[in-house]
Design brief:
The longest helix is centred in the last third of the chain and has 37 residues, at 729-765. Helix 10 packs across helix 11 and helix 24 (564-576) packs antiparallel against helix 25. By secondary structure, this protein is an alpha/beta fold.
Length: 768
């Protein structure tokens, strides 16, 4: 174990705590702490320091005790000073601590009481003892049991030296017997710290055992090492720093049974502000910086930006080239119409189509290409310059883009204001946030200024779709252009409003081609009533069939023999039109086939293709065992993501628990199963997002979520079978309309139930 600590130090730490090396004035301690005169004020302010007070060489201790202390120091050093950290902490060299004077001199020579910087972490470990007065003592090799005051160290003195330093954020972890017994005396000492420091700095203390418990010397390092591994893999916390609450939760998750959690959980001794707020004292070992391809005002609609490289490569059919592709080719008529709208003065454009027909892809392309940050990125410059003429919006043409999925009317307004860099006004208990923020947005638009373009996608997936139309969008009518017979407005901002909304196709033609006076039920009709002069573009017109064929051919790639990719793509386009979602799923399945056309001609595969999203998912579930993932487990994991509220389901302990409930039995080795799902053939069925500082997962499209939420979803595990009789275009449209209706009825039923529950809760609480 000692060798392991030395290896860690050789890989980046400044010295090894507990190895007997004594720090004396002039031996480099000051330089290790960054006290050298050449350190700039900025470097001193950003300094992060780890200080260990570890006592190990007791005369009557078993060898296992010293080995356990070394294990503790190894995992603590790995967490805070590991070579894989982008900004590791400076480790203070620790001398051998045998008597009280050694500890006092160490604190003095390390300059703890006058230390400055961004973060200080103090780890205290060794034998602890609770005195007759309730004072907690750290025992030393030379401590006399009957003379604690003279020969031991009051643990609170070590803690108080750190808390009353000049460092902005302090975290102390006490891993001794009876550690929580320090709480009462530390609470009194905490009052001596000036209120100005208590209000400015975060000062937190954690104990590893209760006031009447003894420490198992190897339990803490073994659990902490598992927590370290968990944070690097399944926890998937997205912030660069953790809160104390994050640490305590993940520590409890690794303790197993409820009894073990009650006995061995961490205890919060002093709440100094970091329980729920991330602190620089706790670096996140699993943090991976997120690439921001577009500005924050456009990120909701412009991404799947996390996967943009993957999709650019795959859809271009040139895996070695990261230029043009799915976002930037095909759909030329639609892209030109959108670009013309975004270069026009003002107005309203409604982009609509059936489920999976590529509405979000078309909108995402326009938003992405208009973003200055994306256009300035050398990696994607060719994707912009190679796009067909007239299909690239002007730089900055989109002001803010909001995804309405599962958002209320108030949520949408708040996001619009935030994207426009307007701070939403505070809302009191008797205020209507929609009314207040709508007036704020209207006041902004009435001011002189540059034109504004608002993009709202996924209106049909909003928590309150019709209130969004009536209370958020309708008040914008006066800013979107003069109505017939109305004089043009002068001196205020011109507004372009672009809305993406799902709608069904008419049997005898598209909704856009419906006869005059025909009512189009649903959200599209509501929008057209509010904006009767709006331009309506559909993504499911007949000419999209060729776009689907081009898309599938690009997904298959150039490695297919002869014209196999072309013939397979044409077959897929004929069967799945107008669904780009189904085209994507089919292209994924054909991509690895030696002969895509032969695979596309197999009866079982064609049967699955004819059954749309459900049939393609059934084909993938039938083959998923090849990845080492049982089909019923895979389906349960996918269904859990579909039932998740908000942006999706987090991995951690939540996803396995939800999937186990749907499966009606615990999932064996759940973390391995989820990892296999995310790396295998079913990965394309999931999108990921960020919510509450966690990476979360959800179905890639609402239509897929509707399939997974159906009561008869277990039928997806049955072997693929062809439809009875020939299914032509009309049969497919009947099925799609039925799926649309079933999905819409399921969602509206859930919303009605949620509204009733919410109304009951509001009535009970007496809130507005």
């Amino acid at each position: 174990m000692q060798r392991g600590v030395e290896d860690l130090v050789a890989n980046g730490a400044k010295a090894t705590p507990g190895n007997g090396a004594r720090a004396t004035p002039g031996n480099g301690t000051e330089a290790a702490l960054g006290h050298a005169t050449e350190a700039t004020p900025g470097e001193r302010a950003a300094r992060r320091t780890l200080l260990t007070v570890a006592v190990r060489d007791y005369p009557d201790a078993e060898p296992e005790f010293a080995e356990g202390i070394d294990e503790q120091l190894a995992v603590v050093t790995q967490w805070w000073c590991g070579p894989d950290l982008s900004e590791p902490f400076d480790l203070v060299p620790q001398p051998e601590l045998r008597q009280r004077h050694d500890v006092e001199r160490f604190l003095h020579e390390a300059g703890v009481r006058e230390m400055r910087g961004q973060a200080l972490v103090v780890f205290v470990t060794g034998h602890g003892r609770q005195g007759s007065s309730g004072t907690h003592f750290l025992q030393l090799p030379c401590t006399e049991p009957r003379r604690q005051l003279a020969t031991a160290v009051r643990t609170s003195e070590i803690v108080a030296a750190a808390l009353d330093s000049r460092v902005d954020n302090v975290l102390v972890i006490i891993n001794t017997c009876y550690a929580r017994g320090i709480a009462e005396e530390l609470g009194r000492l905490y009052k001596e710290i000036p209120a100005s420091r208590r209000g400015r700095a975060t000062l937190d203390v954690i104990a590893t055992c209760d006031h009447d418990q003894v420490v198992h010397v190897r339990r803490f390092p073994s659990v902490l090492r598992r927590v370290l591994d968990r944070l690097r893999t399944t926890a998937q916390i997205t912030t660069p720093w953790l809160s104390v609450g994050h640490l305590m939760t993940e520590f409890a998750n690794e303790l197993g049974s409820d009894a073990e959690r009650r006995r061995h959980r961490l205890h919060y001794v002093l709440d100094g502000g970091a329980l729920t707020v991330p602190t620089p004292c706790l670096p996140n070992p699993g943090y991976r910086p997120q690439r921001t391809l577009v500005g924050p005002a456009r990120r909701q609609v412009a991404t799947p930006a996390d996967d943009v490289d993957v999709w650019l490569d795959r859809a271009s059919g040139r895996p070695e080239d990261s230029d043009g592709g799915w976002y930037f080719s095909g759909r030329q008529r639609l892209n030109r119409d959108l670009t013309a709208f975004l270069t026009g003065p003002q107005g309203v454009l409604l982009l609509t189509g059936t489920a999976g027909s590529g509405k979000s892809a078309v909108l995402g392309r326009a938003v992405t290409l208009s973003d200055p940050q994306f256009r300035a990125n050398p990696r994607y410059r060719h994707a912009v310059t190679s796009a067909p003429p007239g299909t690239v919006p002007p730089e900055g043409a989109v002001s803010v883009a909001v995804l309405a999925r599962q958002r209320t009317a108030a949520d949408v307004l708040r996001e619009l204001l935030t994207g426009l860099e307007i701070t939403p006004l505070p809302v009191g208990p008797a205020d209507d946030p929609v009314e207040r923020w709508s007036a704020q947005l209207g006041a902004f638009l009435r001011e002189p200024g540059d034109p504004v373009t608002l993009v709202l996608d996924g209106l049909d997936e909003a928590a309150e779709p019709f209130p969004v139309v009536q209370r958020v969008l309708a008040p914008l009518t006066e800013h979107c252009g003069p109505l017939p017979g109305q004089r043009p407005l002068g001196g205020e901002r011109r507004l372009r409003l672009l809305v993406g909304v799902r709608s069904s196709r008419h049997r005898a033609g598209t909704a856009a081609a419906a006869p005059p006076g025909a009512r189009d039920p649903g959200l599209l009709a509501a929008l057209r009533e509010v904006f009767p002069w709006a331009t309506v573009l559909r993504t499911d017109e007949d000419d999209s069939r060729d776009d689907i064929a081009d898309y599938v051919r690009a997904l298959i790639g150039p490695r297919a023999p002869g014209d196999s990719a072309r013939r397979a793509a044409e077959l897929v386009a004929e069967q799945v039109w107008p669904s780009f979602l189904d085209a994507r799923l089919a292209g994924d399945q054909l991509r690895d086939a030696p002969d895509p056309a032969a695979r596309a001609g197999e009866p079982d595969w064609r049967a699955g293709l004819q059954n749309g999203t459900k049939g393609l998912l059934r084909l993938d579930l039938a083959a998923v065992a090849e990845d080492g993932l049982p089909a019923d487990v895979a389906l349960a994991l996918l269904r859990a993501s579909a039932y998740a509220l908000g942006a999706g389901v987090p991995w951690s302990t939540v996803w396995p628990a939800m999937a186990g409930a749907l499966l009606r039995r615990p999932i064996p080795d759940p973390d391995r199963m989820i990892d296999t799902l995310l790396r295998g053939r079913l990965a394309g069925y999931l999108a990921h997002d960020h919510e509450d500082d966690r990476l979360v997962y959800r179905p890639v499209h609402q239509r897929l979520a509707d399939v997974l939420q159906q009561d008869r979803a277990d039928e997806l595990l049955e072997p693929p079978a062809g439809p009875r009789g020939r299914e032509g275009r009309e049969g497919r449209e009947d099925r799609e309309g039925r799926e649309d209706r079933e999905g819409r009825e399921d969602r509206e039923g859930r919303r009605d139930r949620e509204d009733r529950r919410g109304a009951g809760t509001r009535d009970a609480e007496g809130a507005v």
